Amino acid sequence: MALPALGLDPWSLLGLFLFQLLLLLLPPSPAWAGGQGPVPRLRYYAGDGRRALSLFHQKGLQDFDTLLLSGDEDTLYVGVREAILALDIQDPGVPRLKKMIPWPASDKKKKDCALKRKSNETQCFNFIRVLVSLNATHLYACGTYAFSPTCVFIELRDSDLLPISQDKVVEGKGQSPFDPAHKHTAVLVDGTLYSGTMNNFLGSEPILMRTLGSQPVLKTDNFLRWLQPDASFVAAFPSTQVVYFFFEETASEFEFFYKLHTSRVARVCKNDMGGDKVLQKKWTTFLKAQLLCAEPGQLPFNIIRHAVLLPANFSTDPYVYAVFSSQWQIGGTSSSAVCAFSLKDIEHVFEGKYKGLDKETSRWTTAGAPDGISPRPGSCSVGPSSDKALTFMKDHFLMDGQVVAKPLLVKSGVEYTRLAVETAQGLDGHTYLVMYLGTTTGYLHKAVVSGDGRAHLVEEIQLFPDPEPVRNLQLAPAQGALFAGFSGGVLRIPRANCSVYKSCMDCILARDPHCAWDPESQMCRLLPTPVPKFWGQDMEQGNPEWLCASGPMGRSLRSKSRPQIIKEVLAAPNSILELPCPHLSDLASYRWSWGTATDLGASSVVYNGSLLLVLHDGAGGLYQCWATENGFSYPVVSYWVGLQDQPPALDPELAGIPRERVETPLTKVRGGATLAAQRSYWPHFLTVTVLLTLVLSGALIFLLSSPLGALRARGKVQGCGTLPPGEKAPLSREHLQPPKECRTSASDMDANNCLGTEMV
Ligand SMILES: *[C@@H]1O[C@H](CO)[C@@H](O)[C@H](O)[C@H]1NC(C)=O
Ligand SMILES: *[C@@H]1O[C@H](CO)[C@@H](O)[C@H](O)[C@H]1NC(C)=O
Ligand SMILES: *[C@@H]1O[C@H](CO)[C@@H](O)[C@H](O)[C@H]1NC(C)=O
Ligand SMILES: *[C@@H]1O[C@H](CO)[C@@H](O)[C@H](O)[C@H]1NC(C)=O
Ligand SMILES: *[C@@H]1O[C@H](CO)[C@@H](O)[C@H](O)[C@H]1NC(C)=O
């Protein structure tokens, strides 16, 4: 069975040893290093035909930052640098440009902008920041307009954009930021625009403002410091009586030795009319509270990056889903979390106690609603509030309670920039939450939350080859697609491609609520509504055991894992065959079997998942690659291997399974001529492998020893490798965060060391 005649055992041992050495020397792949959090079951690289994305782009157009879906979902309006587009998205495939209206910043503004030392190459343009549907006939758009925020009413005719007329242009301060790098948010509620952004050129004066509509214009009070100078808005949503804003700022209420970021929700009442004597033209109902997204006993994810509202449904309350990152790089890598906050919890905190700043001691104290003031300060009561209540509001704008949530998903090694959420009905009748998460490096994760409140990642799609952030995500549910904006264009991403799951096992194990196995057509298909009851899906367990059992049951022990097709490989004696095993899932582990044996013998090696086999006498038979996932094993691929002139008789167990002849690509070296047929290629093969391994390990040792050593040395000089002897590690600002040089100049490994020593 084995190859004693070749007598190569010492060599194979050496080869194996070197191979192991090589594995040890290789730096851990990101998947291992950032081991925390769910692993995407499938990964698609940019351009993978299995997950075809349709890209709209055009020469001269860039920064596809702002997306707005028309009410009928037939048109996607896009704010790009210095223009607004209307894209027809009715047909699957690449969005079609219906109309483009240019809206460049004027030459004068561009000149002024450049004079103020802003870049005429990257900053002094009109970046569209706000794009909302005002009424049936008008859109409203705002842009940075070369650091001079400007807005415009754009007329629509049959969802076609009419050119911008100068008499429809208005000043946009407080609605769009000055600087394209600054965050902002805006939401239109009953013809009124609520916006949160930076209100000055320097970017030091945040504002939360109400404009348009018939109500008075209201602003936050800058002097009273309701918002910290670095407040950075990410989202806003209306509720019945109030509008909520989500943002991040420096926490002023904690006395801490270094700048501590915190995430906030603020709210204002829609019916706020501003104060009369006190708080004139200012909000009289502005309140804010801390949002806390943390695993118990861990550092919180304190920086909110984006949030979306999932409105109430028959059974569920409205929830806000938000992506967070952390100010602390735990273990040298950044990490992200998704938390869900119920609007009920948020409301509850706004009905609790307040915090107030004691002017004399500069300390924050807790305060209940003052006696004798009714209605409660900050509540959305109709009618004017008393001066006493407004005076209280001036410095009791922070709530004492926190809105707390435990993460649905924590993932290290990625930073999410954006998210979109929807619900999908599974075959079991339950509603599942589906989250699409865009990263800073251009990937999209499709995450599904099952009944136990935990998320799994169905897939990871690389949206574009160059790493850059996903700028925006917009779901178009009626189109069954998601649109993603980035610097170079807008992509249409179908919700799912169920046909990538080729077998019933794969379809069930995927646990994608959009896909189910149709036993009739023997295909994994998009789940239609109403759901066909006889299809197969198991969102909770992902257990294909019963769902995929077909044919005569109970006769053979392995009936459910019988291969669907057998690939027949016939070759000349002593050929070297490469039998590939497609890795369908990153959650599965793979192994090979030979007949009923799992021990493959000496005539074969597994390399990169494929089986390399020397076809000598007695090495033929059934070779199967098995995937084990979720406790379930099934053959991914099955080969029937034999000699050309004397194919072995097929195992009776396998009778009736369709067979397919596989030719050349599998046969690495074929012994055609008699002479060649008598030679064994095994020694050559091993020699080459060993030499290659030697060269590679040599190169690696060299690589690891020289530049990395140098980096280590440098790291130490900069004080990040180890602390000088005798110095204890104080818990101070410098030591909680690794010095910048550590993170940028040294490898992850060193940053790790660095943080490791200092956190002690
Ligand atoms: C879906 O996957 C199948 C097979 O993997 C592929 O042929 C097809 O083009 C894909 N379709 C899309 C829209 O990505
Ligand atoms: C920016 O200004 C520089 C110097 O004033 C000029 O040479 C360059 O052409 C300008 N670039 C653009 C894009 O206008
Ligand atoms: C929509 O808003 C624009 C701008 O405020 C206004 O001129 C127009 O009359 C409005 N149209 C409708 C149908 O209300
Ligand atoms: C409520 O959820 C169901 C199932 O997900 C969905 O079909 C329906 O459209 C939702 N209704 C609303 C009002 O969102
Ligand atoms: C490993 O296999 C995959 C797919 O089977 C292939 O794309 C990749 O190039 C292989 N890597 C090496 C080093 O052979």
Automatic annotation (TrEMBL):
<keyword id="KW-0393">Immunoglobulin domain</keyword>
<dbReference type="GO" id="GO:0045063">
    <property type="term" value="P:T-helper 1 cell differentiation"/>
</dbReference>
<dbReference type="GO" id="GO:0007411">
    <property type="term" value="P:axon guidance"/>
</dbReference>
<keyword id="KW-1133">Transmembrane helix</keyword>
<keyword id="KW-0391">Immunity</keyword>
<dbReference type="Pfam" id="PF01437">
    <property type="entry name" value="PSI"/>
</dbReference>
<dbReference type="InterPro" id="IPR036352">
    <property type="entry name" value="Semap_dom_sf"/>
</dbReference>
<dbReference type="InterPro" id="IPR027231">
    <property type="entry name" value="Semaphorin"/>
</dbReference>
<dbReference type="Pfam" id="PF01403">
    <property type="entry name" value="Sema"/>
</dbReference>
<dbReference type="GO" id="GO:0016525">
    <property type="term" value="P:negative regulation of angiogenesis"/>
</dbReference>
<comment type="function">
    <text>Cell surface receptor for PLXNB1, PLXNB2, PLXNB3 and PLXND1 that plays an important role in cell-cell signaling. Regulates glutamatergic and GABAergic synapse development. Promotes the development of inhibitory synapses in a PLXNB1-dependent manner and promotes the development of excitatory synapses in a PLXNB2-dependent manner. Plays a role in priming antigen-specific T-cells, promotes differentiation of Th1 T-helper cells, and thereby contributes to adaptive immunity. Promotes phosphorylation of TIMD2. Inhibits angiogenesis. Promotes axon growth cone collapse.</text>
</comment>
<dbReference type="GO" id="GO:0030215">
    <property type="term" value="F:semaphorin receptor binding"/>
</dbReference>
<dbReference type="GO" id="GO:0030335">
    <property type="term" value="P:positive regulation of cell migration"/>
</dbReference>
<feature type="domain" description="Sema">
    <location>
        <begin position="41"/>
        <end position="495"/>
    </location>
</feature>
<keyword id="KW-0217">Developmental protein</keyword>
<keyword id="KW-0524">Neurogenesis</keyword>
<dbReference type="InterPro" id="IPR001627">
    <property type="entry name" value="Semap_dom"/>
</dbReference>
<protein>
    <recommendedName>
        <fullName>Semaphorin-4A</fullName>
    </recommendedName>
</protein>
<dbReference type="GO" id="GO:0005886">
    <property type="term" value="C:plasma membrane"/>
</dbReference>
<dbReference type="GO" id="GO:1904891">
    <property type="term" value="P:positive regulation of excitatory synapse assembly"/>
</dbReference>
<keyword id="KW-1003">Cell membrane</keyword>
<keyword id="KW-1064">Adaptive immunity</keyword>
<dbReference type="InterPro" id="IPR015943">
    <property type="entry name" value="WD40/YVTN_repeat-like_dom_sf"/>
</dbReference>
<dbReference type="GO" id="GO:0071526">
    <property type="term" value="P:semaphorin-plexin signaling pathway"/>
</dbReference>
<dbReference type="InterPro" id="IPR002165">
    <property type="entry name" value="Plexin_repeat"/>
</dbReference>
<dbReference type="GO" id="GO:0001755">
    <property type="term" value="P:neural crest cell migration"/>
</dbReference>
<dbReference type="GO" id="GO:0010594">
    <property type="term" value="P:regulation of endothelial cell migration"/>
</dbReference>
<comment type="similarity">
    <text>Belongs to the semaphorin family.</text>
</comment>
<keyword id="KW-0221">Differentiation</keyword>
<dbReference type="GO" id="GO:0001525">
    <property type="term" value="P:angiogenesis"/>
</dbReference>
<feature type="transmembrane region" description="Helical">
    <location>
        <begin position="681"/>
        <end position="704"/>
    </location>
</feature>
<feature type="signal peptide">
    <location>
        <begin position="1"/>
        <end position="33"/>
    </location>
</feature>
<dbReference type="GO" id="GO:0045499">
    <property type="term" value="F:chemorepellent activity"/>
</dbReference>
<keyword id="KW-0472">Membrane</keyword>
<keyword id="KW-1015">Disulfide bond</keyword>
<keyword id="KW-0732">Signal</keyword>
<keyword id="KW-0812">Transmembrane</keyword>
<dbReference type="GO" id="GO:1905704">
    <property type="term" value="P:positive regulation of inhibitory synapse assembly"/>
</dbReference>
<dbReference type="InterPro" id="IPR016201">
    <property type="entry name" value="PSI"/>
</dbReference>
<keyword id="KW-0325">Glycoprotein</keyword>
<keyword id="KW-0037">Angiogenesis</keyword>
<dbReference type="GO" id="GO:0008360">
    <property type="term" value="P:regulation of cell shape"/>
</dbReference>
